[in-house]
Design brief:
With 348 residues, this protein is of the alpha/beta class. 46% of the residues lie in helices and 16% in strands. The chain has helices at 10-17, 23-43, 46-49, 57-64, 68-80, 95-100, 110-123, 126-132, 144-157, 162-168, 187-195, 207-218, 257-270, 293-305, 313-322, and strands at residues 55-56, 84-87, 90-93, 177-181, 200-205, 226-230, 243-249, 271-281, 326-327, 331-332, 340-345. The longest helix is centred in the N-terminal third of the chain and has 21 residues, at 23-43. The protein is globular.
């Protein structure tokens, strides 16, 4: 998947092909405006205001508590971008926005878009990271409001993919105990426990994460089998032969290679014989081609906002192998956020 300038007619195609248009301006000013138009519409509840049917700019503004004139300027931009449809002086939801941006939809990602106001603030400091080489550390100094937005935003990204990921994670037959490292909202633990009736899970995460994720986990009604534990995966002891399965999903990019190796060693000690350690991560960029754009951009963002960036399956398998586990073949999920699922089993 790629993002960027797309020609809409033969003349524009020629201008792009022969480098006759100032693409950097379009890639920044226009793209930046595009991003903020969508996010602003979500923030004021514009898509929810259209959930019951078409409406004029004046009616939409009244429903959102926004100014009619500025709202009227925003609506054509959303329609031209495929998020709305114009019908005379009225606007209505497109299939795109009805599925993803109406809060009552089971697929809604509004919480993630609201979190992006904070994330884009970090990206505005990218030059600091480039000059110093020091990550900005996403989690340090977040207010309660941002922590709450972060947890809700991360959970909404799991919608529709928890069962797919749970199916890809090998759990030993008859397993009873699982550790979910950095699992915050607990959505993956809940899916795994529902899939494996004998399984219970401990979700280990930072104290602030647990505090703000606890209400989200409580909504699942799985408190008898999935519970939080506040702590720090890098410094806490996991015990010895306590778990049949350990998972870390979308978290390894926060840790350096050395930290991930040390973590794998602790996990191996905590696993019972035949236990499985599964690392699920976003794909790392594997070259400089255009098809690598999304992976490369994600890798830069994770490096800036956290500690290291994305990891390849071979790197994840090397952590497991060095810890004494037997890595399995990587499972690549086209859906499920495009995760690579790398599992390693402890010998009997």
């Amino acid at each position: 998947m790629r993002f960027g300038l797309m020609a809409s007619n033969p003349l524009e195609w020629l201008l792009v092909k022969f480098n006759l248009i100032a693409r950097p301006v379009l890639d920044t000013q226009v793209a930046g405006t595009y991003v903020h138009v969508i996010m602003a519409a979500v923030k004021v509840g514009l898509f929810d205001a259209l959930a019951d049917g078409p409406a004029t700019a004046e009616k939409i503004a009244a429903g959102c508590g926004t100014h009619p004139d500025s709202t009227a300027k925003l609506l054509p931009a959303l329609a031209a971008s495929g998020y709305l449809r114009a019908r005379g002086d009225q606007y209505e939801l497109s299939p795109l926005s009805r599925k993803w941006l109406v809060t009552t939809s089971p697929h809604a990602v509004n919480d993630k878009l609201l979190l992006q106001f904070y994330e884009l603030g970090l990206m505005q400091r990218a030059d600091e990271y480039l000059r110093s080489g020091k990550p900005l550390d996403f989690h340090t100094g977040m207010s309660d409001d941002v922590w709450d937005s972060y947890q809700r935003g991360m959970k909404c990204l799991t919608t529709g993919q928890t069962d797919l990921v749970a199916k890809a994670i090998p759990v030993p037959e008859g397993a009873t105990d699982m550790l979910d490292i950095g699992g915050s909202h607990g959505a993956y633990s809940v899916a795994l426990c529902r899939r494996h009736p004998s399984l219970s899970a401990v979700v280990l995460d930072l104290p602030d994460a647990v505090r703000h994720a606890a209400p989200l986990l409580a909504e699942e009604g799985m408190g008898d089998r999935v519970r939080h534990r506040a702590g720090n995966a890098l410094t806490d002891d996991f015990g010895e032969e306590c778990y049949d399965a350990v998972v870390i999903i979308g978290v390894a990019h926060h840790f350096s290679d050395e930290q991930n190796r040390e973590l794998a060693a602790k996990v191996t000690r905590a696993l019972r014989p035949n236990g499985v350690y599964t690392i699920a991560e976003f794909p790392a960029a594997s070259g400089g081609g255009k098809t690598q754009q999304l992976a490369a951009l994600r890798d830069f963002y994770f490096a800036l906002a956290s500690e290291s960036g994305t990891w390849s399956p071979s790197q994840m398998a090397s952590w497991q192998r060095a810890a004494g586990l037997r890595p399995a073949k990587t499972v690549r999920l086209a859906a499920g956020g495009g995760l690579n699922v790398q599992s390693g089993r402890k010998p009997r």
